[in-house]
């Protein structure tokens, strides 16, 4: 199991604390430093069953500068979104846990973290 975190994020710190408290076996990826490639983002999206706009933090200053709220949310625009997430990893929703069964969850709640541990 791997968790993508931003250490400055309280949701990320809470997820790591819960994983530690439950004795989970996991690795940490500080995705702002170890930026995921477009292929890795595609793979995580497939595991999540989501589209890139579903995991984009549209309230971030970078999102506003890029005008993401106006970008189309359709199949033809998918690669544009993935490219933006790879170029601006701060826009990726966090934390994301890739579970052992090949799925993933956006683990913003304790329930979601426990769900990932049970997979």
From TrEMBL:
UniProtKB keywords: Oxidoreductase
InterPro entries in the cross-refs: Arsenate_reductase, Arsenate_reductase-like, Thioredoxin-like_sf
Gene Ontology molecular function: arsenate reductase (glutaredoxin) activity
One family name in Pfam for this protein: ArsC
Entry-linked SUPFAM superfamilies: Thioredoxin-like
Domain of life of the native organism: Bacteria
PANTHER family (alphabetical): ARSENATE REDUCTASE
Family to which this protein belongs: Belongs to the ArsC family.
Protein name as it appears in the record: Arsenate reductase
Organism: Streptomyces brevispora
């Amino acid at each position: 199991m791997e968790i993508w975190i931003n250490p400055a994020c309280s949701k990320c710190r809470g997820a790591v604390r819960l994983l530690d408290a439950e004795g989970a076996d996991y690795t940490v990826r500080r995705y702002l430093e170890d930026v995921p490639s477009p292929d890795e983002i595609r793979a995580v999206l497939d595991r999540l069953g989501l589209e890139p706009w579903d995991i984009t933090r549209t309230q971030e200053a970078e999102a506003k500068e890029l005008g993401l709220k106006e970008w189309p949310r359709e199949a033809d625009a998918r690669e544009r979104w993935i490219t933006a997430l790879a170029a601006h990893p701060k826009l990726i929703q966090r934390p994301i846990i890739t579970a052992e069964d090949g799925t993933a969850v956006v683990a913003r709640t304790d329930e979601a973290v426990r769900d990932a541990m049970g997979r």
